[in-house]
Amino acid sequence: MKQEDFETKEATYTEKVAEHTSAVDSSAATETQYAEETMPAQRTENLKVFTEAKRLIDTAKTDTMGAATAAKTQGTGTCNSITGARRAHVDADDKLLNEQIKPLIDQLTNLKCVDAITTENFHEKKAAWHAKKAEEIAEAIKDEGRCGPKFNGKICTGGNFCNEANGWCGNTDAHRDAQDSTKYDGAGTLPKTNLLQVASETKSKCALTKSKMASFIETSHFLGTVSLDGQFKIFTDRVAFERTHMENLHEACISDANTAFEDEKKAADTTHEKAEAGLTSTKDDADALLVTELATLRSTNVALVKAKLDAIDAPKAAKELAQTALNDANADLSTKMDTKTRLEGLAQTTHANALAAALATKNSDISARKAALATLKSIASTAHDEDKTFVDGYCTDSRADLVKEEEVLKMIEEKLGGLSVCHDSPSDWKSTTSNTCSDYSERQWCTLDGGYGTGWKPEYVDFAKWAVNGVDASQACCACGGGSK
Fold this sequence. Notes:
Layout: H1 2-110, H2 122-142, E1 161-163, E2 168-170, H3 173-177, H4 200-216, H5 220-223, H6 228-382, H7 384-417, H8 437-442, H9 473-476
Antiparallel strand pairs: 1-2
């Protein structure tokens, strides 16, 4: 019974240990597979998705920048085209003023042709003319002998003539006759001629020059009261303003094109950066989730393994308890078996000694009787004749006594036979529930006369229910009235 209980507990314990070992192996396998296969594969997939998405946003940015660059190029081209058209007009006006009108005004100045000189502006124009001449002479001297239109209109000093073709000053006829103009020839000293005194030979030249200017500057209808110098300045100022305005418009146009491009570029960069940051964040979150899932898997496995380990404790304790009970039972059984063996040996020895003593007594009595009989026979032999009747009678009586003694010895043998030691038969008999004869005796399930003991319960029914091969405890166990002697 205790052996069966131990074996059941041990089987349960072994099963729990196997479950724990399986959980440990399974946990290690799943964690290894996740760490070495699932995570790398998923990370590769995450990177693949990230790379493809980044390629798309890179392409979108490239397309946007391409469109912005094309728009900038087109805008810049439009700006340049408009400015080019404006510059052509401004350059044409500038060329007219500087290459055709300005030389005429310079010629008038050199011819000392003065227009609209009145008493009111005489001193003003005189001071301006002297200042201009002083400035021209200073510039000419500063230029170290260079003169003419190629050197900013410098005038030669002293009595030197200007060769306008090569821009050199000199006092030779070649310098003087190099051109008809005397515009850049030196006068030696500042002229002291009254501005109102104009040489008669130059009046015709002045009139012709003024006529040419009037044909270029057709403004007499609204600038008739303005001097030629003033009219020229008005037009040069207008051309300068128009050029400045043109350049400002061009710069503004280019700036707008560049600003639009930069705005598009900034917007594209911002959109791209946000999209890339979002993709990176998504990828990082996905990679981090893999780590979290691995940690969760490990935590779950640890809990599972611990639960399996904890599940071993109770079966282990039960097994150890059953082991202890089995060991105690085996020790008790061994003690009882030793006791039984000693009792059986003692009973056998007692039985043998009793038989030997009875036989010895029997033999001794027989020998004594025989000796006494021999003595009697000897005596009777001596007095045979006289005691024949007596001896015959005595012998008859002795024979009767011997018969009675023989009967007594048989009775003794029968009594000694009742002392025979009982043996369980079979000696290793067990019930269908593996209970032995010792269990029946210890638990008081039976009595020596084959009845039911105080420990027998009604639900056990009877001995025959637990018989093995037709033999129950009342037949096999000495303690229950069975066994063999």
